[in-house]
């Protein structure tokens, strides 16, 4: 007796030998029809899936499409519910820089975001390192406290923190938006710790036996291995401050020279000399960097989100 | 699923074996290094969490306008909140209303979009990018854009709705009855980040479970109901908790939208808005602290209720942090 498949073939051919050639042809036809039917069903399913996905995509894209087209219309047309610009006002994208201090807002936002990002990275890597790569008493308790602070509503600490900064005469200035990020962010520690834990311990043990100091071990071995995770926290931190509205609203509103894009954009309507269609031009420019960054770093993003289950 | 992995990492039997190896115990623990590394976090939590929480707790029993010294008034702030401040009740009502609708809606929509993304054999990454993109848009820009395109007079959305046969489309942000729906749609548009978590969860469900279900003759609905849904409960639970916490801090979208339209009836006046106006427009720091503490207590109670019920509906394949 041969292997199973051979046995089945033999059995089948003996079974089929009892049948007339017409019968065999009929069976073959049936199986062909069944196969075709399955292929047809698969095709229908694919069409169904893709049509649902395409409809959803159109819905998701629609607002973005509308911002861009309205941003290219003149004022009159922007208020007529049109969905295609005529004529194309490419000039809007230059005019917005002269109508409002758009460049200044952009530079302010960029400055706060970059400084904030540096702060978060520099101050979150070391805590994440000792929370994941070293064994010490109270480590898990500390980690639970860090998770707990992530759940704490900001409103509870907001007022006293504001009072501290006002006593330091830091309002209005960029300092209240930058300095706290140098005191590490719970979210970034959490994300980095998740990643550091996945690096095998043997690497550290080997380096320790060779007499490598903990600091060197962190900087020279673990940090280079954790580049994707560090990129993820840097991205989240950057976008967090780029998109932040509440912080600048508290700390920068009093001095127009310090305004960020969010504050400036929100005040747009109050600036009477500005055309309303420019609102969409400015919005489009505000979104552009984020969307460009996203296209270049999509993988880092999606991995970061799934690594922690939360976005910064 | 990563979330459950985090939770599992707390249970002793799941700890990495390396930690138990006797050789590692011999290594001296570098406490100085640990302290130095932890110091940004330690000082951060002292300056920006512990000290502020203690002060704000004290201030919630005082009258404080930022310039004069806080004046102790006992429970007066809380009495004012519950019996005199109609704005507090309005803000609370609006917040509860929008949370009750948007949290389940967000969970269902994130689940649905993630689920359709798992279906096609090819091209799903393009759709995923498209669905994820709006969640990247800065909140202020997104809110501005929505109030503009949903504007009944010059926004194209209502024109589209008329074209598909809706005779009298709502006035959205201009109409107190519909403004919250506008905000809900704005929230659903930015579902991308939540969707990614659901997608990861769905892809994590073992294929063998679906095969077993189909061998038993389960319909697609049954395999969703009895395989997918139970396996997704940890993710649903997680987004439920963060959704409740987040909804009491809902601010920017509502603030920007109500600044764009004249929200005379305060239909977009939420709890966080009330705290902001009390603290930074009226400079009633004591009363605002009291409001913030009530917010904390409400969030805590909601979270505890969800935690209590989780045993009945959340299914953890690997054990849990919260058990």
Description of the structure:
The complex is a heterodimer of chains A (312) and B (323). With 312 residues, chain A is mainly α. Chain A has helices at residues 4-17, 21-71, 75-78, 92-99, 102-133, 139-151, 155-167, 175-178, 186-197, 201-209, 214-225, 227-243, 246-251, 261-266, 277-296, 298-308. Chain A contains 16 helices and no strands. In chain A, helix 2 crosses helix 15 (277-296), helix 4 crosses helix 15 and helix 9 (186-197) runs antiparallel to helix 12 (227-243). Chain B has a single domain (86-313), classed as Orthogonal Bundle (MetI-like fold), CATH 1.10.3720. Chain B has a two-stranded antiparallel sheet. Chain B is globular, with a radius of gyration of 24 Å. Chain B has 323 residues and is mainly alpha-helical. Chain B has 15 helices and two strands. In chain B, helix 5 (86-118) runs antiparallel to helix 12, helix 10 (192-204) crosses helix 12 and helix 14 (271-280) packs antiparallel against helix 15 (285-313). Classes of the chains: A mainly alpha (312), B mainly alpha (323). Chains A and B meet through helix 2, helix 5, helix 6, helix 7 and helix 9 of A and helix 1, helix 3, helix 5, helix 6 and helix 7 of B.
Sum up the structure in keywords.
heterodimer, A: 312 residues, mainly alpha, MetI-like fold, 2 domains, B: 323 residues, two-stranded antiparallel ribbon, 15 helices, globular, disordered N terminus
Concise summary:
The complex is a heterodimer of chains A (312) and B (323). Chain A has 312 residues and is mostly helical. Chain A has 16 helices and no strands.
SSE diagram, text form:
The complex is a heterodimer of chains A (312) and B (323).
Chain A: H1 4-17, H2 21-71, H3 75-78, H4 92-99, H5 102-133, H6 139-151, H7 155-167, H8 175-178, H9 186-197, H10 201-209, H11 214-225, H12 227-243, H13 246-251, H14 261-266, H15 277-296, H16 298-308
Helix pairs in contact in A: 2-15, 4-15, 5-9, 5-12, 6-9, 9-12, 10-11, 12-16
Chain B: H1 2-8, H2 22-26, H3 31-59, E1 62-63, E2 71-72, H4 76-84, H5 86-118, H6 124-132, H7 139-149, H8 156-163, H9 179-189, H10 192-204, H11 207-215, H12 220-247, H13 252-260, H14 271-280, H15 285-313
Antiparallel strand pairs in B: 1-2
Helix pairs in contact in B: 5-6, 5-9, 5-10, 5-12, 5-14, 7-13, 10-12, 11-12, 12-15, 14-15
């Amino acid at each position: 007796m041969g292997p199973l498949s051979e046995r089945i073939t033999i059995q089948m051919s003996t079974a089929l030998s009892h049948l007339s050639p017409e019968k065999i042809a009929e069976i073959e036809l049936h199986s062909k029809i069944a196969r075709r039917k399955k292929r047809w069903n698969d095709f229908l399913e694919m069409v169904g899936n893709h049509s649902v996905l395409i409809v959803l995509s159109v819905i998701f894209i629609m607002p973005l499409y509308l911002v861009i087209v309205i941003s290219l219309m003149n004022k009159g047309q922007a208020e007529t519910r049109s969905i295609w610009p005529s004529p194309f006002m490419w000039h809007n994208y230059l005019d917005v820089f002269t109508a409002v201090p758009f460049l200044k807002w952009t530079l302010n936002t960029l400055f706060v975001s970059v400084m904030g990002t540096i702060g978060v990275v520099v101050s979150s890597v070391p805590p994440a390192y000792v929370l994941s790569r070293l064994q010490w008493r109270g480590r898990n308790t500390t980690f639970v406290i860090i998770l707990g602070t992530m759940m704490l509503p900001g409103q509870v600490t907001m007022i006293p923190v504001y009072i501290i900064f006002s006593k330091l005469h830091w309002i209005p200035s960029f300092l209240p938006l930058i300095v706290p990020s140098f005191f590490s962010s719970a979210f970034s520690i959490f994300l980095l710790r998740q990643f550091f834990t996945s690096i095998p311990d043997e690497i550290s043990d080997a380096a320790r036996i060779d007499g490598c100091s903990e600091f060197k071990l962190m900087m020279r071995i673990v940090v280079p291995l954790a580049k994707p995770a560090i990129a993820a926290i840097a991205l989240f931190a950057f976008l967090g401050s780029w998109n932040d509205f509440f912080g600048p609203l508290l700390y920068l509103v009093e001095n127009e020279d310090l305004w960020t894009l969010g504050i400036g954009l929100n005040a747009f309507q109050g600036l009477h000399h500005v055309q309303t269609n420019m609102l969409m031009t400015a919005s489009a420019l505000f979104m552009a960097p984020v969307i460009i960054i996203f296209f270049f770093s999509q993988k880092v993003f999606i991995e970061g989100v799934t690594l922690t289950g939360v976005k910064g | 699923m990563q979330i459950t992995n985090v939770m599992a990492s707390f249970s002793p039997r799941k700890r990495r074996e390396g930690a138990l190896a006797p050789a590692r115990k011999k290594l001296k623990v570098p406490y100085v290094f640990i302290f130095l590394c932890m110091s940004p976090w330690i000082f951060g939590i002292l300056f920006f969490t512990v000290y502020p929480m203690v002060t704000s707790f004290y201030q919630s029993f005082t009258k404080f306008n930022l310039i004069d010294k806080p004046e102790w008034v006992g429970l007066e702030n809380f009495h004012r909140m519950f019996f005199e401040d109609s704005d507090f009740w309005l803000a609370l009502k609006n917040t509860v209303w929008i949370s009750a609708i948007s949290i389940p809606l967000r969970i269902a929509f994130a689940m649905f979009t993630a689920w359709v993304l798992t279906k096609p054999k090819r091209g799903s990454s393009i759709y995923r990018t498209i669905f994820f993109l709006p969640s990247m848009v800065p909140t202020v820009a997104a809110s501005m854009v929505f109030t503009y395109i949903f504007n009944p007079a010059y926004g194209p959305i209502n024109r589209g709705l008329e074209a598909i046969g809706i005779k009298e489309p709502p006035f959205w942000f201009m109409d107190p009855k519909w403004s919250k729906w506008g905000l809900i749609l704005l929230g659903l548009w930015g579902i991308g980040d939540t969707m990614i978590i659901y997608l990861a969860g769905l892809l994590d469900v073992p294929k063998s479970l679906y095969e077993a279900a189909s061998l038993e003759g389960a319909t697609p609905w049954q395999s969703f109901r009895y395989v997918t849904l139970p396996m997704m409960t940890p993710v649903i639970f997680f987004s439920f908790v963060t959704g409740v916490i987040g909804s009491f801090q809902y601010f920017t979208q509502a603030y920007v939208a109500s600044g764009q339209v004249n929200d005379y009836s305060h239909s977009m006046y939420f709890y966080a808005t009330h705290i902001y106006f009390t603290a930074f427009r009226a400079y009633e720091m004591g009363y605002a602290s009291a409001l913030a503490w009530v917010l904390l207590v409400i969030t805590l109670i909601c979270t505890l209720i969800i935690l209590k019920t989780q045993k009945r509906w959340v299914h953890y394949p690997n054990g849990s942090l919260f058990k």
